[in-house]
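agent: user wants the structure for DNA polymerase III subunit epsilon from Pacificimonas flava. delegating to structure tool.
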Amino acid sequence: MQPIRVVDLETTGSRPPAHAVCEVGWQDLVPASDGSWTIAESSGAFLIDPGRDIPAVTQAVHHITDEDVRGAPRWDEAAPSVLQRSGGFRALAAHRASFEQQFCTPRLTRGAQWICTWKCALRLWPDSPSFSNQGLRYWHRPEGLVREKGLPVHRALPDAYVSAHLLRDMLALASPEQLVEWSALPGLLPRVRRGDDRGTSFEELPSDRLRQLARDRDGDVRYTATWHLERRGEGRLPQPAVTQQDLF
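agent: tool returned. relaying tokens verbatim.
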């Protein structure tokens, strides 16, 4: 049976090719005979030479310095050993996977499917006060998560370890196929994130306000507002466009 590999990247910034990977970590989940998923022993992390200086403001987040990565492998050389596997993966996963996908391109992953634990948490645990990896960690409190292994925050292996425990519990509530499907869509937000309606459930908003938010610049907000309008019979969700990445 194919495992699911949770990956986490630390980088010099958020926008390749201007920015690059400086650390990768992973934690595998494996299926059990009863259909559940368990945390596997297979995990790891190593530093990557990003081929450029790491900005001081970024060092302040993950504490990886230029001296730390000197002599480490480059991302294109090292990525296949993490992102590819004989027999393949059921899926790759990450918290806010769209960030990792910028660096883990279809060429490097051989077109693997992705699960975004952030998008899935929005649907499965809408009552959570926060949907950050650490916010979910302390709100949901996954069984068996060893506190010390999930630290320090903003390092690749500890963050992948935490995300894997959250994903394990999500897989008890929904199939891998369902999680992949949700992950391919924009985020379905439970509450308004900004403005006068901040903190208000989308379900409680009047239709006029939803129609305004359906034109918002934020794609997750537009999708969520339209989703609720459609449930009320007052709108229609746009069909996702097929991209070259999807066809890879």
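agent: one observation worth passing along. The longest strand covers residues 21-31.
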